[in-house]
Amino acid sequence: MPANLPEEAPLEMTLQKLEGNPPGSIEVKTTPQGLLGKRLLLIAATGVLGMAASTEVRFAFSRDGLDFIEILLLLLFVPLFCWIAFGFVSSTIGFIKLMVGGHPGFTAITGSIRDLDNRTAVLMPVYNEGVDAVMGRVEAMATSIAAAGVGKHVDFFILSDSNPEHGKEEWAAWEKIAREAPINVYYRRREKNIARKPGNISEWLERFGSAYEYMVILDADSLMSGDAIHGMISIMEQRPSIGLLQTVPMTINARTVFQRWMQFAGYAYGPIASAGLLWWSGSEANFWGHNAIVRVKAFAESCGLPQLGGAPPFGGHILSHDMVESALLRRRGWAVHMLMIDGSYEEFPPTIVDHAIRDRRWMQGNLQHLRLLDAPGLHWTSRMHLLIGASAYLTSPAWLVLIITAIAQAGFQGHNPITETTPPSVLWLTILLLFGPKFMGLTWLLSRRERRERYGGTWSVIKSVLLEIPLAVLLAPVTMVNQLLALGEILLGRSSGWNAQSREAKGLTVRDVLPNLKPHILLGVLFAATVFIDPITAAWLSPLTIGLLTAPWLVSLTSRTGAGAVLGRNGYFKVPPPINVGRVPSELV
Fold first, then answer.
1. Dihedrals φ, ψ of 393, to 5°?
2. What is the DSSP string of 243-283?
3. How many helices and strands in the chain, by DSSP H and E?
4. What is the DSSP letter of 558?
5. I need a labelling partner for 318 at 20 to 30 A (CA). Which of 236, 306, 414, 507 fits?
6. pLDDT, tens only, 20-69
7. DSSP assignment, residue 17?
C-alpha cells in the first residue's frame, strides 16, 4: 500500500499583527505600466457618472425646496448609483480590451518543462464532500498533471476535515487512486477542525511546507488541467516577486436550470468583467481562495491570520480569509496577479437556496473586513478590495431603505419625487448601467463566427440572453431579501457556522421552499399594496413585486435537472465544453 503521507518538512507559519507598525516589504517588480493612471481613470469615470446623475436629481428635487425625505433619498441615491456605475465602467474597460485590444478572453497557458526546478504541492481541502465526485476530480487532475509532463515535480494532497465516518470512505477511495495514480497522491485527515480551511492549510504548511516552493490551492469542487498548473508554475519560476496567481475559474457540471443559467452568465458576461478587473487590479489583484498558485514561503511569512477580538459573527476566526491573505501578501511586497486562462473550473451551487446559504457565509466574512480597513501597511488598492467586498452586502438594505422612503413620501405627501420628478435622462442612464454589461457580453459573443458556433450559434446566444435577463430581474429582489435576512441574523449575533456545502442536484418543490420564503411574499404583498397609495409608484415597483410573489416557483423551477436538460436540448444556455482534464467522469462535466 502507498504511504499516505511523505516525510515531514516543517515550516513556521508566522502570525501577523493587524495593529502597530507594518512589517518590512520587498520591491514589487511586476507592476503594470501606468497602473495608477488606470485606477484614477476608473474612479474619475465613476465619479463623473455619479455626479452627473445626482446633480440632475438634486436639481429636480430642489424646484420647490428640499425636505428631509428628499435629502435622505439623495444620500441613498448617490452611493447606490456610484456602486452600479463602478461595475459598468470596469466592465466597459474590459469590453474595450476584448474587442479593440484583441484579448481573446480565456486563453491557453504554456510553460517550458526545463524551466521547472522546484517542487509544487496541489492541495485539495475537503469537508464531508461526496467521495466519488471528489476522488473523480483528484484522479482526473493527477492524470492531467502527468500528461503535461510535470508529474515528477508535483505532489497531490487531499486535506480532509471530514468526520471519522466520512473519513473512512475517503481513505478507502484514496487507497485505490494512490495505487494507480501516475503522480504522488497523499491523504491526511485532521482530528480537530481548527480555523476551517485556513487552519487546514496552515497545519499542512507547518508539517510539510518547507519541501515545496509552490502550492496550488483548490476547493473540493475545483478542477484544473495539468497544462494550466504547468504554465502557472512556469510563470512563478520566471517572476520571483510574484506571491500569488489567481485564475478565473469557469463553471462545470451544470445540470439544474439555476446552474445552467449561472454558467451561461459566467461565460457570456464574465470575460468582460474579468478583463476589466484584471486591467485595474494589476499587481494588487485579489485571492478567491481556490484555483490559484501561491509561493509557499511568502504565504507562510505573510499570511498567518490572527483571530479578531470579540465573539462571532464579527469576531473570532476570519471567514473570508482569502481576500485578507492577498492583502497581507501585498503588504509584504509580494505581487498578486490574476490570469484569464483555460483549464480552471469549479462547480456552482445547484439551487438558489444553496447559493443563499453560501452567500450568507460570505456576507459574514466580508463584513468582518470592515474591521481591517485601518490595518497598518495595506496597499490602498487592497483596502479598496476589502471595502468593495463588504459594500456588496450593504447595498441590499440601502436599496430597501430607498424604496421604503419613496413609498413613505408618496403616502404622507401625496407624491413620489423618484417617479414624478426624476429626469428621464437619469432613468435611461440607470438602465444603461444595469443592463449595459449584458449587452456588451452579447456583442462580444456575436463578434466572431467561431465564438458564436462554440455557444450554439447566433440564435442560441440571442435567445439565451433574452431568457437570462428576465430571470435575473426576477432573482434580484429575492437575493435582496435573502441578504437582508442574513444581515439581520448577523446583527443579532448569529454566526453562519461551518457546514458541508450541498453540491448534489436535488429538485425542490414549492411546498419545500414556501416556509422559508414567507418574508419574500409578505414584502411582495406590501409592495403590491402601494397601488392603493400611488399607482405610479406601484408600477415602478412591479418588477420587484412580481419577483417576490413568484419566488417559490422561481426557486422550485430552477432547481430541476429535467428542466435544465430541456433547456439544453432547445439551445438555451449553451457554453463551450471544458478542455480535456483527464479521465473525468461524464457527470462531472
1. -100, 0
2. EEEEE-PEE----SHHHHHHHHHHHHHHHHHHHHHHHHHTT
3. 21, 10
4. H
5. 236
6. 777 777 777 888 899 999 999 999 999 999 999 989 888 877 777 777 87
7. P
Among the listed residues 419, 213, 394, the one whose alpha carbon sits nearest the alpha carbon of residue 297: 213
Which amino acid appears at position 338 of this protein?
Answer: M
- The DSSP H or E segment spanning 418 is helix 417-421
139: its cell numbers = 484522479
Contact 198, 167 (CB under 8 A): no
Give me the residues paired with residue 215 across strands: 121, 294
Other CB atoms within 10 A of residue 425 CB: 11
Q: Are 364 and 496 in contact (CB under 8 A)?
A: yes
Q: Are 345 and 252 in contact (CB under 8 A)?
A: yes
Residue-wise burial string across 340-361, b where 16 or more C-beta atoms lie within 10 A, e elsewhere = bbbbbbbbbbbbbbbbbbebbb
Contact between residue 116 and residue 209 where contact means Cβ atoms under 8 Å apart: no
pLDDT in tens, 199-253: 999 999 999 999 999 999 999 999 999 999 999 999 999 899 999 999 999 999 9
Left (φ > 0), alpha (ψ -120 to 50) or beta: where does 331 sit? alpha
Q: What is the dihedral of CA 477, 481, 483, 489, to 10 degrees?
A: 180
Q: With CA atoms as reference, report the closest residue to 258 among 564, 578, 586.
A: 564
Which residues make Cβ contacts (< 8 Å) with residue 509, sequence separation at least 6?
556
Q: Is 408 left (phi over 0), alpha (psi -120 to 50) or beta?
A: alpha
Closest-CA residue to 68 (of 405, 350, 310): 405
Name residue 105's amino acid. G
Region for residue 456 given its phi and psi (left: phi exceeds 0; alpha: psi -120 to 50; beta: otherwise): left
Greatest distance between any 2 Cα atoms in the chain: 84
Joined together, the cell numbers standing for residue 59 give 436639481
Q: Which residues pair with 341 in a beta bridge?
A: 107
Q: Which residues contact 440 (CB under 8 A, 6 or more apart)?
A: 91, 92, 95, 269, 272
Q: Tell me if 246 sits within 8 A of 338, measured CB to CB.
A: yes
pLDDT tens for residues 467-501?
A: 999 999 999 999 999 999 999 999 998 876 555 56
Which strand ranges, in their side-by-side order, compose the sheet holding 120-126? 184-189, 154-160, 120-126, 214-217, 292-295, 242-247, 335-339
> Three-state SS for 305?
coil
